[in-house]
Amino acid sequence: KGRSEYIQLSHLDECWLHITNNCNLKCSHCLFSCSSEKTETLSYDDIKRSVDETYQAGAKIFYLTGGEPFVHKNIEKILSMILLDYKDTSLVVMTNGINIPKHISFLQTLPKDRLYFQVSADGTYEKHDQTRGKGAFQALLKGLTSLKELNTRNTLAMAVHSENIFQMKDLIDIAKTYKMHAVHYLWLMVTGSAKSNLFVDPNIIFSNLIDASIYAKEKEIEIDNIRNMSFQVFSPAG
Q1: CA-CA to 28 of 20 to 30 Å: which in 121, 128, 129, 216?
Q2: How many CB atoms lie within 10 A of CB 234?
Q3: Which superfamily is assigned to 9-233 in CATH?
Q4: How far apart are CA 87 and CA 95, in angstroms?
């Protein structure tokens, strides 16, 4: 039989929904080249139908991505549908954090034990604004302040490239300051808006990841890439 019995698809565990290409930033490394000029967006009805169908197929964890999910005109309705219409779902919103303060009162009404945020950051002030535009870093910090008050379980994510690789440890300091639970490092794909000059040799990434791992342990911040790697190494056969 080989591995066939282990890799058969019997049900879904999770569902990823790219709900819009519209974004309030224009990042130089964006995988989908999203911006305020892009208007392609899933309707609420299409999103609800996708959630209903994948839930029936077994999915309990839902991810919202884009673009920027919080520019979707029905974002509060979408969050309510996923978390309140179903009592055993979890939701992860992948966001740049800028619009979090606008929705903080609404977010307080949602079940915080099932709501998670992965917030993008590209390093410190200079690198973040260089990648995302002037004022983006201060807007990020306002969003992180709101999430700190919301007290959900949150992750800070960095797309590692040639211009910010030596700030991997700085991300840990930001995560510690704003009581984030973990840091996640994304490995750049040279597609979309990303140019080849942003690519970093994996050997350089690995050495910086090791340094960041040691530093994160001192700061009591988890790097979830390393945690997930350990699950794969020590998982059952197949």
Answers
A1: 216
A2: 7
A3: Aldolase class I (3.20.20.70)
A4: 23
Instruction: Going residue by residue through the chain, which has 238 residues, state the pLDDT in tens, using 9 for 90 and above.
Output: 566 666 677 789 999 999 999 999 998 877 778 888 899 999 999 999 999 999 999 999 999 999 999 999 999 999 999 999 999 999 999 999 999 999 999 999 999 999 999 999 998 989 899 989 999 999 999 999 999 999 899 999 999 998 899 999 999 999 999 999 999 998 877 677 767 778 888 899 999 999 999 999 999 999 987 766 544 444 454 4
CA atoms within 13 A on the CB side of 178: 27
Alpha helices in 8-108 (DSSP H): 44-56, 75-84, 104-107
Q: Which two tokens stand for residue 166?
A: 């030596």
d(CA 27, CA 24): 10
Tokens 């211009």 label which residue? 163
d(CA 121, CA 128): 7
Q: How far apart are CA 183 and CA 120, in angstroms?
A: 10
Closest CA to 209 of 136, 26, 217, 12: 217
For residue 136, give Cα distances in angstroms to 103, 129, 143, 202. 18, 6, 11, 28
At 185, which amino acid appears?
Y
Q: Which helix (H) or strand (E) holds 156?
A: strand 153-160
Q: What is the DSSP letter of 236?
A: P
Q: Is 126 helix (H, G, I), strand (E, B) or coil?
A: helix
> Which residue's structure tokens are 């029905």?
74
Q: List the domain boundaries for the chain.
A: 9-233
